[in-house]
Specification:
438 residues; alpha+beta; Heat Shock Protein 90; 3 domains; five-stranded mixed beta sheet; elongated
Length: 438
């Protein structure tokens, strides 16, 4: 028998590697995800009105409080504070709900990322516990004991004034975190980040505040009428449901054009316009600003969240996932259909009236119910607007002339724009020189 070599990681090294690649905003959203999962367990119906997640921070501390059901002592003991998920541990579920907790590292990574001392108080309808951890002291212990000790535990009846939910308080913030929290614009960037990497659960009444200010979430929308049909496709592979929806919206927000990817209701890719979502590959054109009206959505759902194609920080996708590879082909098919059907919108060859007939059409809000109903139709994208079918294609004429001459023509014509000068000049010449040859 040879000499045993110690290959155990040190706590300091483990924490460094665990937190190295996660941004502070992503760490905060991980904690929000935990609260949302709690809301899903508490309200299996999906109605979260009356539930809240309150975030407060300053240069000295960070706190997130919710009334979303709390953490049981059993879950705290066996799972919540364990580094990684045991294959034999089954997380408490709720019928019809899909959760975002998957790798068993989210909350712990966030706690270590933000500071070196944290206290967690949790109350379910039956139980209460408190956990206090001084990370610096915990790291100094070089033994193989990686456990934490609850400082309080008991029945909820013994703590009647404690509201059901979880309270996480982090102090002794890391210097870089404290500096970020002290910046005036951090509030805005954090708010925008949370709004962007939202979950579909926000549609059902769950409220989030930051330093007392509520966050307002807008739902995705897509044009859907009797004449305009979005692309919809639903496929089930193994234990993963894939739903693809693609279509058009008004042109007003080009920065939001592209593909959106959700895993169990959590947005992980925002408005992508690259080959990540198939642009410029396999016969699919590159994205161009003329496609500012394009919107595509890919939804992955599974009771086994390990199967979903997201990375560990939930800020991107695992492109090697067989489910994502399959979905990407559907996304390319959807993009190609929209591009083909909307060619006249892309090259601006339609009269303004015909474009308005499209972009002022009725929009459908993409909620849990409408996502399912739209995808289940397995429909191709179609654009059968009468104004487009009957519209005579147009082309643009562009030329330059001395400004002095153009200004003089404006005065003579009684118009105020260069465009009007061009239109009047064209109409004048065409009427006198071309109409007889029609």
């Amino acid at each position: 028998m040879g000499t045993t070599v110690n290959a155990n990681p040190t706590k300091e090294f483990f924490i460094s590697m665990l937190t190295r690649d996660i941004d502070v905003k992503a760490a905060i959203v991980e904690l929000i995800d935990n609260s949302i999962d709690g809301a899903k367990r508490l309200r299996a119906s999906g109605d979260y009105h009356g539930l809240f997640i309150n975030i407060t921070y300053d240069r000295d501390s960070f706190r997130i409080q919710d009334n979303c059901g709390g953490i049981s002592i059993k879950t705290a003991r066996d799972y919540a504070f364990r580094f990684g998920r045991s294959s034999g541990h089954s997380v408490e579920k709720a019928p019809g709900q899909h959760f975002t907790g998957v790798f068993g590292i989210g909350m712990k990574r966030s706690l270590f990322r933000l500071g070196t001392e944290f206290e967690i108080t949790s109350n379910t309808e039956e139980e209460h516990f408190k956990l206090h951890v001084n990370v610096d002291e915990w790291i100094k212990d070089d033994s193989n004991d990686w456990t934490f000790q609850l400082s309080e535990e008991g029945q909820k009846a013994d703590y009647p004034d404690q509201e059901v939910g979880t309270d996480i308080f982090i102090s002794k913030l890391h210097e870089g975190i404290s500096d970020q929290f002290g910046l005036k614009y951090f509030f805005t960037t954090l708010t925008l980040y949370i709004e962007r990497f939202r979950t579909i659960a926000m549609e059902n009444g769950l409220e989030i505040t930051i330093n007392g200010q509520p966050i307002y979430f807008s739902s995705d929308q897509i044009i859907q009428t009797n004449d305009i049909t979005p692309y919809g496709k639903e496929e089930i592979i193994d234990d993963v449901i894939i739903r693809i929806i693609a279509g058009i919206v008004p042109k007003g927000e080009p920065e939001k054009a592209g593909w959106y990817i959700y895993c169990n209701g959590r947005l992980v890719v925002f408005a992508d316009k690259t080959n990540l979502t198939g642009w410029g590959e396999d016969g699919t054109r590159l994205y161009h600003p003329s496609l500012a009206f394009f919107r595509g959505y890919a939804y992955f759902e599974s009771n086994n969240s390990d199967s979903l194609p997201w990375n560990t920080t939930k800020t991107g996708v695992d492109t090697s996932s067989k489910y994502y590879i399959y979905a990407k082909r559907l996304m390319q098919e959807a993009t190609q259909q929209v591009v083909k059907e909307c060619s006249q919108l892309i090259d601006s060859s339609l009269p303004v009236e015909a474009e308005n007939a499209v972009f002022q059409s009725k929009k459908t809000m993409l909620t849990t119910a409408t996502i399912i109903s739209t995808a289940e139709k397995n429909s191709c994208f179609s654009l059968n607007v009468p104004e487009i079918k009957n519209a005579e294609p147009t082309s643009t004429i562009s030329f330059s002339k001395p400004k002095k001459m153009i200004e003089h023509m404006k005065q003579v014509m009684g118009v105020s724009t260069n465009k009007d000068v061009g239109i009047n000049s064209f109409d004048y010449y065409y009427k006198r020189e071309c109409e007889e040859y029609e």
